[in-house]
Specification:
Layout (H helix, E strand, L loop, with lengths): L18 H6 E6 L2 H12 L17 E8 L15 E2 L7 H10 L2 E10 L3 E6 L3 H4 L3 E9 L4 E5 L2 E3 L5 E5 L5 E5 L5 E9 L2 H6 L10 E3 L5 H16 L3 H9 L11 H12 L3 H14 L4
Antiparallel strand pairs: 1-9, 2-3, 2-4, 4-11, 5-10, 6-9, 6-11, 7-8, 7-10, 8-12
C-alpha cells in the first residue's frame, strides 16, 4: 500500500522559509494508486455525508463520519482517547478497512471528512487530545482540487492525493475549499509507536506543495475594513465578519490577526459587546496547550 519513501528532509533541504511549514505538515509516503482509487470509490459511495460537528470552528460545509471510534456509530465523531472499533460504515468499506489494517498503526480515531465548495475551517488549533505527546494526525486525500488548501505557518499548502500526509496541529491553521468540487479526506488520529515512527521518519514536501502568503499592507487592511464596514451599514454583519475571517487565507497574518480585525471593526463602531465576543472567540479557537 505504501510505496516510495524519499530521503529524510532537513530544515536546510526544505528551502528558505519552509522549515516551519515542514514542521506542521509533510508528506510521509506515496501510496499505491489502486489502493487510493478503491478507497475513493468506497468513500464516494458512502450512504451518508456525515454530520456537522465542531460548528464553532467552521463556516458550514464540513461534514465528518467515523470509520473507527469507540461506539461503532459512524455519526459519533467527537474524538477522544481510547481503543476504537470499526463502525457500521467501515464494515461496508472493505478496501479502506484493508488499507488501515495494513498500515499497522495504533489508531485512536479514524474519520472521513468532507469539505464542500465555498467552505472554511476557520483559523484554530486542534483539540487538546492531539496536542499531548504521543498523538499524531494523518491525512489521506481521496478527492481534492487546487483550491482546497491548508493555511499554516504563513503558507498555503495543497495536500495532493496519492500521498499520506502528517498534520501537526501545534500552530494555528485553517482550511478552505473555495471553488470545489468537494474535498474528501481520510483522517486518522494515531498513537506514537514503532510503526508510526518508521512511517514518519522521512517527512518531505515537493517544491510545488507550498506557497508563501503575502504580508498585509496598510492599504490592504484599510480596504478590507472599509468593505466590511459597508456590509455592516447595509445590514449584513455576518457577511462583514466572514470577509475579515477570510483574510487569514489571503495574507500571512499574525496569529489571530483576522479575529483582531473583526474586534477592531466592531470597537471602531462602538459595538463593544460584539468586539468582546470576537476577542473571546479568538481565545477559545486559539487556546494554547
Amino acid at each position: 500500500m505504501v510505496t516510495t519513501l524519499p530521503a529524510a528532509a532537513t530544515p536546510e533541504q526544505a528551502g528558505p522559509g519552509r522549515a516551519e511549514v515542514l514542521d506542521q505538515v509533510a508528506r510521509l509516503a506515496d501510496l499505491e494508486e489502486s489502493a487510493v482509487e478503491q478507497m475513493r470509490a468506497e468513500a464516494l459511495g458512502a450512504p451518508t455525508r456525515g454530520v456537522v460537528a465542531y460548528g464553532d470552528y467552521q463556516s458550514g460545509g464540513w461534514w465528518t463520519t467515523s470509520l473507527l471510534n469507540h461506539s461503532g456509530d459512524p455519526h459519533d465523531v467527537v474524538i477522544g482517547d481510547g481503543r476504537p472499533r470499526p463502525t457500521s460504515l467501515l464494515e461496508e468499506m472493505p478496501a479502506t478497512a484493508r488499507f488501515l489494517d495494513l498500515l499497522g498503526l495504533d489508531f485512536m480515531y479514524v474519520r472521513l471528512a468532507r469539505l464542500e465548495p465555498h467552505s472554511y475551517l476557520w483559523e484554530h488549533r486542534d483539540y487538546a487530545e492531539l496536542r499531548e505527546r504521543g498523538r499524531h494526525r494523518l491525512h489521506i486525500p481521496l478527492v481534492t482540487n487546487p483550491s482546497a488548501v491548508l493555511i499554516t505557518a504563513g503558507a498555503r499548502v495543497h495536500l495532493a492525493a496519492g500521498s499520506l500526509w502528517r498534520l501537526t496541529p501545534s500552530r494555528a491553521h485553517g482550511v478552505c475549499n473555495t471553488t470545489g468540487p468537494d474535498r474528501l479526506h481520510l483522517i486518522a488520529d494515531v498513537y506514537a509507536d514503532d510503526a508510526y515512527q518508521a512511517l514518519a521518519a522521512r517527512p518531505h514536501l515537493h517544491d510545488t506543495d507550498a506557497a508563501d502568503l503575502p504580508q498585509m499592507t496598510a492599504a490592504d487592511r484599510a480596504g478590507l475594513l472599509a468593505r466590511a464596514g459597508q456590509l455592516v451599514d447595509l445590514g449584513f454583519p455576518d457577511a462583514a465578519e466572514q470577509t475579515l475571517l477570510r483574510a487569514f487565507y489571503t495574507y500571512a497574518l499574525p496569529e489571530g490577526g483576522a479575529y483582531d480585525l473583526i474586534a477592531g471593526l466592531h470597537a471602531g463602531r462602538r459595538a463593544h459587546p460584539d468586539a468582546n465576543r470576537w476577542r473571546a472567540a479568538k481565545a477559545y479557537l486559539l487556546v494554547r496547550p
